């Protein structure tokens, strides 16, 4: 019967799912109805001699540290080791327009009615609808069915801009830092807020990488998760670093970032004492990092994501290098990342101007 034939999944041939992992990917069984039509890029962290098992029936490619070293050569130094930041290697080797990335301890959540949430479909919906970073709509996302722009919203801004990032949330285990984990060990997020909103221009946010989608062609080169983990003085700030850099560049180029739906179910809390050791420097440094990004400006010459990112790397060295020598090293890694990105993605390099162009001052 014709009705039993499933409809073609949205963006089936235009989206890759990137998963960083150190373990067998049994969690994919729960996601099978939603992920099986798509191509997976699995980035194996840790010991490359260990064999990671992937359930049958998934279309995937798997990269370990040996593959990263082989593909990038000396430039592999920019990819973190023993940290989920290694996931950004998957963004670099993908050839698709869109990326969805998820952690292996994230399961399918249910909405308040008990219906399973197709997180990937909601991310796609977010990315394919415009954003409104220049003027806040009090009914949140005006492009969602059943809502619109409110009275007083300028008609000249109602067309919106392209959405570069869709940032999803989590039920159950909240995404807390170690001090908050320690004082609230039993806290669980049970609040399901049925909303999506555009983060306004000039406003930073703490980006979580465990339930995230983005337009790789629009913003991919800025999605570098930094130098974290093994051999580095900081961890658990990889997605945060990428989020701050990305938001500054999106604001400059006139691109949008959405947050809210979809929710996933975050199944297990990481050890707060281990986390504290990883975050210790970051907790101090963020008090200077955030003002740095809040005041960062890019010149009119920065017309591509790559140019923006290189300019940002120079500012990191000039202004953050005095905090700790790590930031000089990170600045150099940011440049290496862009060089490696352009080597693997020659068609997306310097000639690819962002369609919206640098944002006009508002």
TrEMBL record:
<feature type="site" description="Required for activity">
    <location>
        <position position="151"/>
    </location>
</feature>
<dbReference type="GO" id="GO:0052691">
    <property type="term" value="F:UDP-arabinopyranose mutase activity"/>
</dbReference>
<keyword id="KW-0325">Glycoprotein</keyword>
<dbReference type="GO" id="GO:0071669">
    <property type="term" value="P:plant-type cell wall organization or biogenesis"/>
</dbReference>
<dbReference type="GO" id="GO:0071555">
    <property type="term" value="P:cell wall organization"/>
</dbReference>
<dbReference type="InterPro" id="IPR037595">
    <property type="entry name" value="RGP_fam"/>
</dbReference>
<dbReference type="GO" id="GO:0005829">
    <property type="term" value="C:cytosol"/>
</dbReference>
<feature type="site" description="Required for activity">
    <location>
        <position position="158"/>
    </location>
</feature>
<dbReference type="Pfam" id="PF03214">
    <property type="entry name" value="RGP"/>
</dbReference>
<keyword id="KW-0413">Isomerase</keyword>
<protein>
    <recommendedName>
        <fullName>UDP-arabinopyranose mutase</fullName>
        <ecNumber>5.4.99.30</ecNumber>
    </recommendedName>
</protein>
<dbReference type="GO" id="GO:0005794">
    <property type="term" value="C:Golgi apparatus"/>
</dbReference>
<comment type="similarity">
    <text>Belongs to the RGP family.</text>
</comment>
<feature type="glycosylation site" description="N-linked (Glc...) arginine">
    <location>
        <position position="151"/>
    </location>
</feature>
<dbReference type="InterPro" id="IPR004901">
    <property type="entry name" value="RGP"/>
</dbReference>
<comment type="function">
    <text>Probable UDP-L-arabinose mutase involved in the biosynthesis of cell wall non-cellulosic polysaccharides.</text>
</comment>
<dbReference type="GO" id="GO:0033356">
    <property type="term" value="P:UDP-L-arabinose metabolic process"/>
</dbReference>
<dbReference type="InterPro" id="IPR029044">
    <property type="entry name" value="Nucleotide-diphossugar_trans"/>
</dbReference>
<dbReference type="GO" id="GO:0009505">
    <property type="term" value="C:plant-type cell wall"/>
</dbReference>
<keyword id="KW-0333">Golgi apparatus</keyword>
<keyword id="KW-0961">Cell wall biogenesis/degradation</keyword>
């Amino acid at each position: 019967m014709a009705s039993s034939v499933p409809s073609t999944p949205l963006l089936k041939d235009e989206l890759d799912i990137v998963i960083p992992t150190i373990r067998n990917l049994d969690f994919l069984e729960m996601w099978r109805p939603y992920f099986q039509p798509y191509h997976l890029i699995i980035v194996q962290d840790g010991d490359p001699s260990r064999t990671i098992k992937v359930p049958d029936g998934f279309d995937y490619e798997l990269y370990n540290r040996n593959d990263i070293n082989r593909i990038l050569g000396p430039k592999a130094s920019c990819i973190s080791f023993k940290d989920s930041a290694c996931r950004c290697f998957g963004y670099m080797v993908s050839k698709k327009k869109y990326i969805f990335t998820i952690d292996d301890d994230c399961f399918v959540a249910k909405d308040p009615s008990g219906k399973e949430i197709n997180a990937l479909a909601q991310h796609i919906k977010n990315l394919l609808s415009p954003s409104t970073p220049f003027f806040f709509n009090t009914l949140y996302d005006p492009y969602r069915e059943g809502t619109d722009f409110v009275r007083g919203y300028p008609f000249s801004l109602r067309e919106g801009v392209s959405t570069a990032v869709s940032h999803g949330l989590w039920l159950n285990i909240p995404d807390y830092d170690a001090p908050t984990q320690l004082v609230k060990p039993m806290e669980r997020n049970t609040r399901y807020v049925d909303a999506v909103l555009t983060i306004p221009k000039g406003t930073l946010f703490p980006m979580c990488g465990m339930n995230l989608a983005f337009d790789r062609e629009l913003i991919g080169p800025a999605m570098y998760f930094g130098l974290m983990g093994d051999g580095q003085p900081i961890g658990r700030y990889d997605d945060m670093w990428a989020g701050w850099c990305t938001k500054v560049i999106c604001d400059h180029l006139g691109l949008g970032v959405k947050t809210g739906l979809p929710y996933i179910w975050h199944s297990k809390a990481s050890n707060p004492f281990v986390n504290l050791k990883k975050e210790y420097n970051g907790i101090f440094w963020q008090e200077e990092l955030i003002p740095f990004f809040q005041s960062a400006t890019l010149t009119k010459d920065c017309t591509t994501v790559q140019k923006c990112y290189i300019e940002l790397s120079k500012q990191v060295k000039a202004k953050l290098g005095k905090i700790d020598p790590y930031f000089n090293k990170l600045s150099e890694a940011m440049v290496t990342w862009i060089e490696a990105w352009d080597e693997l993605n020659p068609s997306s390099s310097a000639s690819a101007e962002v369609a919206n162009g640098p944002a006009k001052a508002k």
